[in-house]
């Protein structure tokens, strides 16, 4: 029983990171209707920025908001300079650009900070609670994730900018007719997705260590969570992220053939299964077009 509780708590902690990545993926998908394959690399680069600020002697709780602000600006800049000029280009053009961004950001991080593995400190200490069932860092991960998700819920539900972003994502043409600047809301969505990704990267770095390829598997888990919950449902993506975290931990512990080596294929299998039997995800809505 103690092992089950430990794996559930660990799954919720890592699932919170997957939920953040899944939410960032869905936010960009709703804005431009394409999956951003460079989302993980953007988060990785932001984590390196945080590490560099820490090396310069800034305190952790000053580094976090600074990194989020830099990431927000970087996400908006990528949308303005790279994505917006594509306009209504074919889907293969978008895919090629995202793969190019992936390669460029990954190589740039390696060029600036090299490809050696670096330890990343945790602000929550090295101890554990509840008789060793959960570490202080895992408690911090859960707490920060819940605060971020609560902030986003309140932002999108009760602020004018948040409501405008929801309207622009739901129906851009109608949003323009009522005076919403859709282009600006798309840029804001990119900025917020980059900021959320940076928080996910900073929280997961103490567990996986810092190096240019650290977010590849995390992004795949985020994709799995987004697909499981539904690419048209931000709340579903959050649920999917937490579910993936719990499922992979329980599968790795209680299914002997899985272990630590086959956790990632479990996530990929979930993506394939959901797409085959329910392409819109558990909470997604089917898209109906009038012709």
Automatic annotation (TrEMBL):
A matching Pfam family: BPD_transp_2
Taxonomic source organism: Tistlia consotensis USBA 355
One GO CC term, this protein: plasma membrane
Domain of life according to the entry: Bacteria
GO term, biological process aspect, one: amino acid transport
InterPro entries to which the protein is assigned, alphabetical: ABC_transp_permease (IPR001851), BCAA_transport_permease (IPR052157)
Coiled coil: none
Subcellular location: Cell membrane
Name this polypeptide is given: Amino acid/amide ABC transporter membrane protein 1, HAAT family
Keywords linked to the UniProt accession: Amino-acid transport, Cell membrane, Membrane, Transmembrane, Transmembrane helix, Transport
Chief location category: membrane
Membrane topology: Multi-pass membrane protein
């Amino acid at each position: 029983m103690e092992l089950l509780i430990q794996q559930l708590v660990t799954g919720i902690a890592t699932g919170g990171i997957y939920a953040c990545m899944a939410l960032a993926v869905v936010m960009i998908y709703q804005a431009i209707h394409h999956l951003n394959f460079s989302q993980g690399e953007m988060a990785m680069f932001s984590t390196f920025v945080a590490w560099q600020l820490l090396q310069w002697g800034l305190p952790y709780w000053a580094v976090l908001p600074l990194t989020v602000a830099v990431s927000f600006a970087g996400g908006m800049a990528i949308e303005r300079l790279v994505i917006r000029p594509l306009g209504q280009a074919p889907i293969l053009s978008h895919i090629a650009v995202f793969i190019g961004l992936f390669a460029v950001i990954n190589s740039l991080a390696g060029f600036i900070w090299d490809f050696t593995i670096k330890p990343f400190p945790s602000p929550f200490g090295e101890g554990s609670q509840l008789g060793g069932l959960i570490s202080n860092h895992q408690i911090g991960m859960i707490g920060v994730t819940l605060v971020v998700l609560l902030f986003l819920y309140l932002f999108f539900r009760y602020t004018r900018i948040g409501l405008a972003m929801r309207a622009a994502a739901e129906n851009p043409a109608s949003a323009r007719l009522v005076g919403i600047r859709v282009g600006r809301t798309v840029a804001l969505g990119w900025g917020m997705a980059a900021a959320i990704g940076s928080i996910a990267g900073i929280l997961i770095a103490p567990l996986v260590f810092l190096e240019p390829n650290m977010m590849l598997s995390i992004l795949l888990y985020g994709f799995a969570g987004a697909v499981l919950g539904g690419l048209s449902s931000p709340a579903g993506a959050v649920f999917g992220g937490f579910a993936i975290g719990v499922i992979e931990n329980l599968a790795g512990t209680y299914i002997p053939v899985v272990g630590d080596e086959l956790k990632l294929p479990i996530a990929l299998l979930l993506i394939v299964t959901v797409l085959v039997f329910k392409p819109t995800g558990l909470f997604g809505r089917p898209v109906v077009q009038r012709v």
